[in-house]
Amino acid sequence: NSDLDTTAQNMLVQAQLLPSTKVQFEIRKLESERGDLPLSFDPSNFVNNLRQFEETRSARLGLHHEFGPNLDIIANLQRQISEPRVDIVGATDLDVTDKGKSAEIQSLIKVGNTLYLQNIVSNVNFVVGGGYSSTERRDEVNFLFFPLNLLGPQITETKSHLKNGYIYGYFNILSKLSLTLGVSYDNFSGGIRNRIQLNPKIGVLWNPAPNTTLRLAAFRTLTKSLISDQTIEPAQVAGFNQFFSDTQGTNAWRYGLGIDQKFSTALSAIPSIYTGFEISTRSLNVPESIPGLTPSVAVNEFWEWLGRAYISVPIHNNFSTSIEAQREKFRRSFFAIIPSNQITKLRTDRIRFQANYFDTSGVRAGILGTYYRQRGDFGQVTGGPTIGGSDNFWLFDLTLGYQFPNQYGQIAFEVRNLLNQEFRFHDVNIRNPVLVPGQMIAFKIRLYF
Fold first, then answer.
1. pTM score
2. How far is CA 200 from CA 139, 221, 256, in A?
3. Are 217 and 239 in contact (CB under 8 A)?
4. Residue 56 CB-density burial (10 A; 0-12 exposed, 13-18 middle, 19+ buried)
5. How many other C-beta atoms lie within 10 A of the C-beta of residue 278?
6. Do the bridges between strand 387-403 and strand 363-378 make them parallel or antiparallel, or are there none, so unpaired?
7. For residues 351 and 376, is the Cβ–Cβ distance under 8 A?
8. How many Å apart are CA 346 and CA 156, to the nearest integer?
């Protein structure tokens, strides 16, 4: 029951109305039908009579205006209507109508050198912004079995509101140190729980040597409902991502350390080698709605750790090779029942070997080999205690493509899991899965006008 049928339509129009004014308009429509898609470690851990349907329509209007060399304004308006339906055939069906709208504005302020600290602090910039969004949701549940079908439709209507603001300051100190200092404010109401939260941000980029960059970051976030999963707030601090697909209302801290290094060689075929590593950890408080005669909200504690190292070697102008090693660790404690697509403990190791070829004629080719090793404790669709398991396997992917002249577009032929390798794997990223079961063959064409 892992089929997926999706039709996506997207139109984007950009125009420069004045030398200092640009506008952008985008509309999207997505229709999908699918079964129980999340990839679980146990292949039998799925709901065989689950069917999911969704239609989403959205529109976005963007504006960028330059008031002068030191001040830019960006505005963004969005509207979205989503109508998902979840059917457990012969048991229940759920029809949802979710309407959302948002407005954001952001200022980019370039201060330049400060008057009294111009020999120490230079190129001072600020990003200041805020926004408002609201959603209206209607849930209708119908039971299809006796005696609950006598109750008729069960309808729930909810509204949520978000007001947020932020300021990020970027300071270059003594030419070798870049400091990011910021704070954001979130006022969220109407979801699983109401919350008002201040989120400090700090990031450091230090160049102790000409080809060496040290990155440090620490920041707090509150996961809120984003229209079309889009926002104009800065997405990263010192190269570390701020926003994840967490449960709405999740309070999280992230800490990160990274080093990137470029080595120059005396070989004409390999003039440079790029390498580096990063480690980061996230501590999350995830709200969970507990149903009953007196509904309540519990807070689950999650912990995540990520470490990765890489080396990339460009060869002439036509070849590139890279190796990347990554380890992810997760620990999750649940107040109530552990969902079937969740884990209480998980460790995933991944080593990727990649080679790419680029020809001046536009022909492209790539081969990717990835070794996976995973072990953890996994929830079951039948409920009850978690079950432990482990697996390790190799997967190979192949890509062949052609780039049209003058950047008019490209075509590509891709094969995922080239050898059709069977494996057991739990994917924690439900929205953007790392792997798909079985073999996938895709033909893509993109045209630019």
1. 0.89
2. 36, 8, 15
3. yes
4. middle
5. 19
6. antiparallel
7. no
8. 35
